[in-house]
Amino acid sequence: MGWASWTPPMHEFVHQGIMLVYDITNEKSFDNIKNWIRNIEEHASLDVERMILGNKCDMNDKRQVSKERGEKLAIDYGIKFLETSAKSSTNVEEAFFTLARDIMTKLNRKMNDSNSSGAGGPVKITENRSKKTSFFRCSLL
């Protein structure tokens, strides 16, 4: 049973950010990104942060999807774009930190807009590389 055969109802989750990942060596995975975007637009909150990632950029010799096509798709939907490689760790950390910063910026803006009484403050993301943990709070669909 693969990921494509199990799609959880999106209303079961509270989404702050979603990474849409396709395989640059697989045209069909790129084509499916539009379906995922449509699903997100229909079921997720309107202000969810999104990012498109073209993965396996270390396999350029087997590329089926150009970087320009990925960039154009992201521009068409107003979504950030990066090419990554999980194998070589290219842009993986940057992708997560970029999405996290965008989420926190949006949350800070909302908090400042709705919290004129001064009962809260901005949230800041800091990077602490000395701590190692194997627990991640990400949902992989």
Automatic annotation (TrEMBL):
Task: Please give the SMART domains that the UniProt record associates with this protein.
Answer: RAB (SM00175), RAS (SM00173), RHO (SM00174)
Give the source's domain of life in one word: Eukaryota
Q: What class of enzyme is it?
A: hydrolase
* Subcellular location(s) per record: Membrane
List the Gene3D superfamilies hit by this protein, alphabetically: P-loop containing nucleotide triphosphate hydrolases
Q: Which GO terms describe its molecular function?
A: G protein activity; GTP binding
Catalysed reaction(s)? GTP + H2O = GDP + phosphate + H(+)
Q: Please give, as recorded in its UniProt entry, the membrane topology of this protein.
A: Lipid-anchor
Tell me the InterPro entries matching this sequence: P-loop_NTPase, Small_GTPase, Small_GTPase_Rab
**What's the EC number here?**
3.6.5.2
Grouped into one coarse class, the protein's main location is membrane
Q: Name one Pfam family in it.
A: Ras
Query: What keywords sit in the KW lines?
Result: GTP-binding, Hydrolase, Lipoprotein, Nucleotide-binding, Prenylation
Q: Which GO terms describe its cellular component?
A: membrane
Q: Which family does it belong to?
A: Belongs to the small GTPase superfamily. Rab family.
UniProt name for this protein: small monomeric GTPase
Please give the organism.
Cnephaeus nilssonii
Lineage here is:
Eukaryota, Metazoa, Chordata, Craniata, Vertebrata
